[in-house]
Amino acid sequence: MVVFIFLLAATLVAMGCLKADRVRAWRRSFNPSAPELPDSAFVVGRIFLFGMAGIGAYTAFHFMAVSANSKWSDDELASAVSQATTALDGASRFGDIFGDDSGFNDEYAQMIEDEVIEHGGGGAPQTGVDAAPADTNKASDARYTVSASGAAAAFCLHVERVRSKDGDWEPPGVAGGAGTVTIPSYDFTVTSREGEC
User: Using one digit for the tens of pLDDT, what is the confidence trace for 125-182?
Assistant: First the structure.
């Protein structure tokens, strides 16, 4: 698409550079009875053609910039993973009321992807990050290979989860007294290194 727009802009510039005498001769060969075009028509035509070529070149450069922003670079991913690791390390989250950890892999992966995208910066895309879980993951000790579309680099995030009873939450009971359910709290330790897990 970008190449086509550049070719179109170049064609418009070439058309604008044609000499008035050549255009008049070409016009006479097709229609000898046509009235002569004044020089002012050529001036207006050139302004139009050069203006359209300028708009086309601007559009092509804009498409190129958008295309560059739709893929991650290695530096963008490295910076985003580093900042996401810092943000997640020491974070606390509530766990499942019934202690069911069956969906932890998807939950952790989504948590990591969201943090990496959030810390990607203004030039990085808002999509394209993948946190692939290792086969040996457990809720208390998990590893994720973080990659992004366009980036050749990959990073390994190690997530450790420890129960923090001080952070548990006990919602009030129906009658306003003590509740019977405790929502467990967990603290996370997150580290990262370059390379796959």
Answer: 888 899 999 999 999 999 999 999 989 999 999 999 998 878 777 777 776 666 667 7
User: What is the 3 state secondary structure string of the chain?
Assistant: CHHHHHHHHHHHHHHHCCCHHHHHHHHHHHCCCCCCCCHHHHHHHHHHHHHHHHHHHHHHHHHHHHHHCCCCCHHHHHHHHHHHHHHHCCCEEECCCCCCCCCHHHHHHHHHHHHHHHCCCCCCCCCCEEEEECCCCECCEEEEEEEECCCCCCEEEEEEEEECHHHCECCCCCCCCCCCCCECEEEEEEEEEECCC
Q: What is the residue extent of each domain of the chain?
A: 2-68, 74-194
The Cα 157–Cα 144 span in angstroms is 5
**154 and 145 in contact (C-beta within 8 Å)?**
yes
d(C-alpha 11, C-alpha 62), whole Å:
19
Give the pLDDT confidence of 40-80 residue by residue, as tens digits: 888 888 899 889 989 988 887 777 665 555 788 899 999 99
pTM, two decimal places? 0.62
Q: Are 155 and 145 in contact (CB under 8 A)?
A: yes
The rounded distance, in Å, linking the Cα atoms of 111 and 105 is 10
Smallest CA-to-CA distance from 74 within 124, 143, 127 is with: 124
